Amino acid sequence: MNLQIADLTTERQWRATLGVDRARFEKLLALFTASYRALFGHAVADRQADLEVTPSLESEQELLLNWLQVLAFTKLPEIDERKSD
Question: pTM above 0.70?
Fold first, then answer.
């Protein structure tokens, strides 16, 4: 699925698709961008400038969007609290 930010036009679409509303996404994006740059020393676009192939995710925004989408559609294992190991 090739989802773009422009495809999300309502708060309901934001929450249903990513599990967060637009305001929370913007806050997460600021933190994600700062963390990415602290970890790698450059922005996504700067790190990918020397690649011979065209990257599929070209910005921190696209990277976070993809990551949240994967998390939103990943089925986590159910925890049975009755079991005690």
Answer: yes
